């Protein structure tokens, strides 16, 4: 089963996510759907605070949570829209 092994922030708005299979995902928070208002608090920040992971998701203390499945789905949607 695919898991998140590490997560960090680069350039203030991009998640650097390492997966258990060795792949890296660079995910720009500004690409989150604007219709999902639970992410407004992240989009409003100039520099994101460092997130944590439980292996299944990326989350911020007292903030939103991004499941790995959601991240992979959004990446697929973005690729198809290019």
TrEMBL record:
InterPro entries: NE0471-like_N. It comes from the Bacteria. SUPFAM superfamilies: NE0471 N-terminal domain-like (SSF143880). This is DUF2442 domain-containing protein.
